[in-house]
Amino acid sequence: MNMDEVSPRMEMSRRMMLRGAAAGGLVLLVGGTGWLGGGRMPPLLSARRTMMGTTVTILIAHEPRAAAEEAVREAFSAMEAAAGSLTRFDGGSDVGRVNASPGRRVAVGHGTGRIMRDSLALARASDGAFDPTLDRLVELWGFHSRTRPSRIPNDATLTPWRKSPGYRGLEIAQDGRNTTLLLNAPHLGIDLGGIAKGFAVDRAVERLRSHGVDHALVEAGGDLYALGGRPDGRPWDIGIRHPRRAGSLLKVLQVREEGVATSGDYENHFMADGRRYAHMLDPHTGRPARHHQSLTVRAQTAALADGLATAGSVTAPEGLSRLLKRLDGRAWLAITREGLEISG
User: Which class would CATH give 94-183?
Assistant: First the structure.
């Protein structure tokens, strides 16, 4: 790590903290003007790196400084290792190799096997609202390259996807310590965009804990985990971006020891014939869902919050509470397509 990226501050402005996390787009970190309360507090270190197509921010309060810097380096390394295995854009990654070998079993690393087991469990529990096998469909809609497709996919184009088994066509096998994945149906490819950032955040938090860190925030493009609370005993303040009012916050959450993730239709979308097509694809229809402008979910881990925000985004408002409660979402806040605020 370039040590210029780590800057200790006993006092940090709200503007700086907003700017530091806003690059990810979905969740903003809202800070006060410094630690409140009596006693000396550890300096707040802030470090940022670009990975997984977004800006990753780690805020940490830990002493001595050398130990804090080492913990941050290790946390970033853990995230980079996870991202390197899970990206679909690298043919040599675990996911890239599986996608390039349909019909064949491919050995993958321990971390990949771990997130794939969690992903398939979430797919089954959500009745397919979360599906980690939509890579080809996402590519068809142009969301991998963030470019509008030359032609909006029609029913004839989408029929093969609707007839595919989806996540049921992905098999995972465990033989001792070895994990293999098999795509055994056409039109399928692994895309973990709906959970990978949360998973990487959790890996960073695990690494920070192993270094004895008790107070930290790790955020990656709208997915975050609040490790402990602030050193003064208060929870971390997390601001949720308003989906339609640039620069405005929808709500400020007080968070400690849990993950938070936001999925919104404003981050990766295109307009055609006056209609917004967002990257949140409904596995049951093959089309972008139009139920919510944004959905924020709180859960035990960042990966679970990420996956639930993905599944909830393609779920109609009337079924959202039932789905998230069944899947252990702790709390949620949604803005519907019509602009109504609903929560649970």
Answer: mainly alpha
